[in-house]
Amino acid sequence: MGSNCAVSTSIGCIFCCQGCNAEKLQNAFTFVPPEKSYDIKVEKLPLQSGPGHELVVSSGKLVYCIPGLRGDSSYQQAAERSEVRLLKTSFGEHIPIVWLPRMDDKGQNSSASSGRKSRFVLLHCHGNATDIGMMMGPFHRLSKHLGIDIVGVEYTGYGVSSGTPSVRNSLQDAEAAHAYLVAAGVPSERIIVYGQSVGCGPAMRLASQHQLGGVILHSPMLSGIKVIDPQPDASCKPSCVWHCFDFYPNYRHAKDINCPVFVMHGQKDTIIPFYHGYRLTEAVPEPLRWPGYFPPAAGHNDIIELDTGAYFEKMREFIRCIKQRSDHNAGLVARPSQVSMAIPTNEEPELEAASEPNVGPKDGRYQKLRQGGLMTVVNGGAAREIRAS
């Protein structure tokens, strides 16, 4: 039996194990919520006035549950600088978003409530094996080195959120965060959505539904089912046999996006193979396609860690051109070779070496699938493997 046939058979097995429910099949190997890393110290319950107050259940500050995070200076600074809002999604679930304002020229916090119409906000959708508490260090560095507001959205069933993780919920989580930002005075055209790993699904769906400022995709997938294709160019591949089960169809959303798209993907990625990022870049209409960043030695979780300087250089370059495009209301994306980049008036902050949280599952489920077996998560996290004979 060929590898494509073996994997397609394995999916049929787990489909039966999940009660012949396609949504359960999607969610079983997609979401891996960790033990929560944070709590919310509620300060206002609920908001009675102010921008977007009708969407907010409560507000407060983020506090860490993990000692290692409490003792890390970047995480502590991020918690002190941030504002947290608990939002109600269209499905009735409660999810937190955390807002880190950009730093001003003196390195001080710039209030999240000031000048919202003129500032850009990076809306971050994280991977499936982390939560916003574990992402606070990276959020702090993004805000510090890019000079931009960072808003991290939590998924239903992750961290302190209510409910159970699902593909449908994750899409509405991103929608709720976007709706709050717009209600709070941030124009949609000044929101840059950043999807990482599984987070690229909600990010691409959001960008296909709204006119955003830009899209950044970090280790993206072409689609959920395509991740498990052992031989993507051969016959009997799972993404064809089980097309009806597909989810996060990022390659299809690419044609519906009307803003610049920047893709980064490590060529040594064993969780979501590199060809996903490369082909997704090619799926973006050429006028909106930003040159991809594909470091040869990087895997799924270490694009930033392997070359922090190159990562932030590429990010700054993209965001500068997004701002120029917005300021001049240009119709097309200005390529790096075609635009004169603004020289910062202040010296760029020194880049510190930083490790990245593991945003992808560590149990090898996707690798096992591509080898003809299937690691399925059942009974609240217990795992068993099904292998086609």
What is the tally of beta strands? 11
**Termini gap:** 8 Å
pLDDT below 50 for ≥5 consecutive residues: which ranges?
Answer: 336-349, 375-389
Order of helices and strands: HHEEHHEEEHEHEHEHHEHHHHEE
Strand order of the largest sheet: 1-2-3-4-6-5-7-8-9
Quaternary structure: single chain
The CATH superfamily appears as Alpha/Beta hydrolase fold, catalytic domain
CATH class: Alpha Beta
| Strand-residue proportion | 15-25%
* Cα-based radius of gyration, to the nearest Å: 20 Å
Describe the structure.
The protein has 389 residues and is an alpha/beta fold. The protein has one domain (3-387): 3-Layer(aba) Sandwich (Rossmann fold). It has 13 helices and eleven strands. The chain has helices spanning 3-17, 22-30, 67-70, 73-81, 136-146, 167-183, 200-209, 238-241, 250-253, 274-283, 303-306, 308-328, 365-370, and strands at 38-44, 56-64, 83-88, 94-100, 121-125, 149-153, 191-196, 214-218, 261-264, 373-378, 382-387. Strands 1-2-3-4-6-5-7-8-9 form a nine-stranded mixed beta sheet, sandwiched between helices. Strands 10-11 form a two-stranded antiparallel sheet. Strand 5 (121-125), helix 5 and strand 6 form a beta-alpha-beta unit. The longest helix is centred in the C-terminal third of the chain and has 21 residues, at 308-328. Residues 118-224 form the Serine aminopeptidase S33 domain. This is Serine aminopeptidase S33 domain-containing protein.
